[in-house]
């Protein structure tokens, strides 16, 4: 099981602060590093959303990718926060040969698929997501993980892995249950659960057999993963 380090976006997310956060994840036990990508001005920056870079200069995507280009063992999860960033992300990954080491995900599936194909990366759909032309992937009212919402997410995940061109699905941990885990395995896909930091939740996800856990605390996930292996 992979450990994916989520760099919690500083507020404000100026270049120096985000660079320090990314360097911290590189020093962790994580197997894969997540970066959030969105447009700012005429370029692309690494930040969770436009609010955290309002009024500051964000960390340029090119500068972030330089941290990873020289380490052939470092893998990435690139989360597209805006469809307009797809082509630029693809070109930046391809220019550094990072495509084969990257999963491109996003709530907007079409841009994620486009970027992944252009960069030679794998694609994933981030769920739950908004309405679209695909099976309804919405959360419940107020974002709740209701029974119907979990069923919708499961149907969307199955479609993404069998017909949608995805190798994986990245699913909010609240929507990850045994039914979803079984469905993803049945499609020979990979299930990435986000974002788990508490021991009890981490152990629940490990017990379900997810393929990866995204976390702000890679060491906590590593401890739980090792403890599970020792007990087996």
Question: What report would you give on this structure?
Answer:
With about 230 residues, the protein is an alpha/beta fold. The chain has one domain: Alpha-Beta Barrel (TIM Barrel), CATH 3.20.20. Helix 3 runs parallel beside helix 4, helix 5 runs parallel beside helix 6 and helix 7 crosses helix 8. Helices cover about 40% and strands about 20% of the residues. The longest helix has 16 residues. The model has no long low-confidence stretch (mean pLDDT about 95). Strands 1-2-5-6-7-8-9-10 form an eight-stranded parallel β-barrel, surrounded by seven helices.
Give the key terms.
232 residues; TIM Barrel; 10 strands
Q: Strand order, biggest sheet?
A: 1-2-5-6-7-8-9-10
Main sheet attributes: strand count, strand direction, barrel closure: 8 strands, parallel, barrel
Number of strands: 10
Going by CATH, the homologous superfamily would be Phosphatidylinositol (PI) phosphodiesterase
**Distance between the first and last residues' Cα:** 14 Å
Task: Write down the overall geometry.
Answer: globular
CATH architecture: Alpha-Beta Barrel
Stretches where pLDDT falls below 50 for ≥5 residues? none
Give the mean pLDDT. 94
Number of helices: 8
- Count of domains: 1
Q: How would you spell out the order of helices and strands?
A: EHEEEHEHEHEHEHEHEH
Which percent band covers the strand fraction? 15-25%
The top-level CATH class is Alpha Beta
Helix content: 25-40%
**Topology-level CATH name:** TIM Barrel
What is the C-alpha radius of gyration, as a whole number of Å? 17 Å
Class inferred from helices and paired strands:
alpha/beta
């Amino acid at each position: 099981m992979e450990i994916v380090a989520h760099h919690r976006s500083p507020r404000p997310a100026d270049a120096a602060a985000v660079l320090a956060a990314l360097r911290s994840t590189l020093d962790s036990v994580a197997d894969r590093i997540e970066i959030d990508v969105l447009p700012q001005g005429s370029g692309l920056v690494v930040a969770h959303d436009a609010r955290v870079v309002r009024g500051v200069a964000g960390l340029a995507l090119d500068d972030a990718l330089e941290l990873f280009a020289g380490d052939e063992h470092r893998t990435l999860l690139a989360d597209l926060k805006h469809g307009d960033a797809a082509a630029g992300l693809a070109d930046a990954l391809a220019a550094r040969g990072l495509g084969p080491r990257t999963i491109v995900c996003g709530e907007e599936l079409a841009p994620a698929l486009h970027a992944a194909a252009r960069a030679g990366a794998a694609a994933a759909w981030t769920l739950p997501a908004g309405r679209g032309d695909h099976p309804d992937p919405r959360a419940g009212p107020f974002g709740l993980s209701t029974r119907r919402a979990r069923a919708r997410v499961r149907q969307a995940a199955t479609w993404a892995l069998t017909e949608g061109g995805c190798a994986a699905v990245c699913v909010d941990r609240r929507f990850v249950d045994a039914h979803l885990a079984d469905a993803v395995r049945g499609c020979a896909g990979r299930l990435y659960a986000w974002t788990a930091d508490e021991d009890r939740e981490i152990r629940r996800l490990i017990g379900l057999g997810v393929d990866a856990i995204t976390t702000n605390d890679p060491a906590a996930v590593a401890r739980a993963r090792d403890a599970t292996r020792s007990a087996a």
